[in-house]
Amino acid sequence: IDVCLNKYQSKVFLKQLDEILDELINNQQNISDDVLLSKYELMNKLGYTTTEKRRFLEENKSIEKVMRILVNEEINKGNYENAIEYLNYNMDMHGKTYSLEETLLLLSLYNTLKDMENVVRVLKIIIYDFNVEDMDFIIQLKNSMDENQWNDEKIKLIEFYKENYSYNFLNSLYVEEKDYDNLFLNITSNCQI
Q1: How many CB atoms lie within 10 A of CB 91?
Q2: Contact indicator for 56, 43 with CB cutoff of 8 Å
Q3: Contacts from 27-32 at CB under 8 Å and sequence distance 24+?
Q4: Are 125 and 103 in contact (CB under 8 A)?
């Protein structure tokens, strides 16, 4: 399909290819991402209206690459709320740990909008569900909470890292929090010296 799209530019040929793709898409249940993307590229070449292209993307938004197009279009237009809505839809449909890349994009968009409640929610998904051991996320989580919230969350984090035998990362948390007594206990009890 890509060879045809790139080699032949005749409108007659492209319209025939468009009809074939429509038939293929309508008659198969599990259509490949590449066929859908080729159809979208063909729609652009044939001058489909924005409404027609948007309808096609919406109908196929369960496909990862199609969703990426929708999200990128919304971001490029500055419609961050719409991009967030698509990303959350994708997360709901595929599960919280579907894509770390999309979760990081979601975090970035919430940070851009200064939506701290959702920043915290997404940071917890990254830390707990993806089990990402990165102090930058811990520091960002801490800076997104008040002192009482952070103290409660810190207890959960320490328990989480202990349960997952992440003692070396726990050392980093203790250093960040200047909790040298627990750092010493953790090193002597759980880390090879």
Answers
A1: 18
A2: yes
A3: none
A4: yes
CA distance 1 to 14: 11
pLDDT tens-digit readout, 36-79: 998 999 999 899 999 999 999 999 998 889 999 999 999 999 99
Residue with tokens 């919304």: 74
Residue 160 is encoded by which pair of tokens?
Answer: 């989480």
| HSE toward the beta carbon, residue 129, CA cutoff 13 A | 15
Whole-angstrom distance, CA of residue 67 vs CA of residue 87: 8
Coil, helix or strand at residue 192: coil
Judge contact between 70 and 86, C-beta under 8 A.
yes
Altogether, the residues listed in the chain come to a count of: 193
What's the CA gap between 193 and 26, in Å, rounded? 63
pTM over 0.90: no
DSSP 8-state symbol, 49:
-
Asked whether 81 and 69 are in contact (CB, 8 A), the reply is no
The two structure tokens encoding residue 79: 């419609």
Question: What residue has token string 């961050």?
Answer: 80
